[in-house]
Amino acid sequence: MSTDELFAKFFGDSASRIEVVDNIATGYASVGGQEVCVIGTVDGTFINNAAALRLARHVMECTKSKPGLPIVMLVDSAGQEPNRTAEMLGLAAYFAHLLSCLEFARRSGHKLVTVATGKAIGGAFICYGMFADAIYALDTASVGLMPVEAMSAVTKIPVATLQELSTRMPALEFGAAPFALLGGVKEVWPTTADLVQKLSDAIRTASSEDDRAATGKERGGRLLAFDVQQRVLAESSR
Amino acid sequence: MSREPYHELKARQRIAAIADTDSFREILPPPERLMSTYLPQLGIPVSFDDGLAIGHATIGGTPVYLAAQVGQFVGGSVGEVHSAKLVGLVKSAARDRIPCVLLVESGGVRLHEGSSGEIGIAEAIRAVFACREAGVTTIAVIGSDIGAYGGMGILSSCCDFRVMTEHGRIGISGPIVIEKWMGKNVYDSSDRGLVWKISGGKTRFILGDAEVLVDESAGAVRDGILSLLGKSAPLDAAALSARQTALEQRVEKFGTATHPDEIWAAAGITDVAIATLDTAEDFKATLPKTAP
Hints:
The structure holds two protein chains of two kinds.
Chain A: H1 3-11, E1 18-21, E2 24-31, E3 34-41, E4 44-46, H2 49-65, E5 71-79, H3 84-89, H4 91-107, E6 112-121, H5 122-126, E7 134-138, E8 142-144, H6 148-155, H7 159-166, H8 176-181, E9 187-189, H9 195-205, H10 212-218, H11 225-236
Helix pairs in contact in A: 2-4, 10-11
Chain B: H1 11-18, E1 25-27, E2 52-59, E3 62-69, H2 80-96, E4 100-104, H3 115-133, E5 138-142, H4 150-158, E6 161-164, H5 175-182, H6 192-199, H7 201-207, E7 212-213, H8 218-226, H9 237-254, H10 261-266, H11 272-277, H12 280-286
Parallel strand pairs in B: 3-4, 4-5, 5-6, 6-7
Antiparallel strand pairs in B: 1-2, 2-3
Helix pairs in contact in B: 2-3, 3-4, 6-7
């Protein structure tokens, strides 16, 4: 699916108001009559310092000129490019700035809704998409820390071993469905679904409470996180 | 004041050197045996604290929530239990309005636990911002050889403040990954001087990504933390706009630079060779008042 086709599925004709420069999308559009601010990455692009700044600038522009408008974050990024200059400039600080701008938007009354549309991998997902109030993914999206092949290359654990384990440990499996089992994605949407309706509902129901650990436990994909968090919260108040 | 080099200490030794004497009360200590369920299935030894010590302490009489990552255990990496302890602690800090101090030593998400640790870090980042919204001070201390990489580099950068030593490094992609990607001729990960100049405390301080740079001793790190307790970094339109401008100017100025020495020179350091060897205090004294 091309970027134009994808955007049209969510925003119809209003997708023409979204500008894509160097695979970074910014703009405003309409979802079933509701105006929204859009930021995103397309075509699996790497996200670098300039990209983070471009997204941050648009978020700030929105909080200033269109208070309270929901912000839709589309994610199709392979991650941060391993790059010497990017690190020298302090890429972590750029990502933190983008997150800070989104936090300010949230506090100012903007709802934040993410849809992982393509690749949503590692740092590229952490630096904006996973910061939303509600996170969704298309069934065709590649969501997760990294594919088992890449995991194997770094950990030196054979691919076959990781693949075998991933059948009962969704954290090791790569994709939207296992990520949803962990609570990292609220719902996986078929690309054939009425995505305008899905996104409208997602915006309407978004709540800023982070319930991912509870969801992960409920769905059986991340069994320990919620209980450990709760135990710390209980013990710390003694 | 503890003169021991901070980077040579282990997690609980760091806590002992930084917290007031006998003030640390660990939450879910090792006897509770909170362990990874992933590592045994991969034939990797577990740790009873999953590589993170958390608890109450006081620093200079001020109550804090304190966490220290154990770099010796899978590189201080963040797995499911590790991240859940961190999230619980930071949420406790927001709830109780008690400052939160994170002694960071981590390569980031624990690959062996896949997306579980990744989501855990994302939850911890939300918790850090919950502290900031409540006006609760969050401080990341980065002064170890491992530094703060990957998701922990991002999380550390989201705190109100960062205290660094020259030994500390903040980044996302580590030097070995970059060398593999770009080639050894572009980034030689065995060139420790270069690696530390790209991501280490001195350069991060010059650029304004670390607010406090201190000497190597644990006592100096403690003093650095003390100087920040009770303060907050504003998160409002004016502060964000100023930060946006500063980060844009940084790309304009140094986006085509090949060596961090160019950043040092632009900061007004006339003798880079001497400044490289300077202690943090001497280094700060040689810097002119205005940042590049």
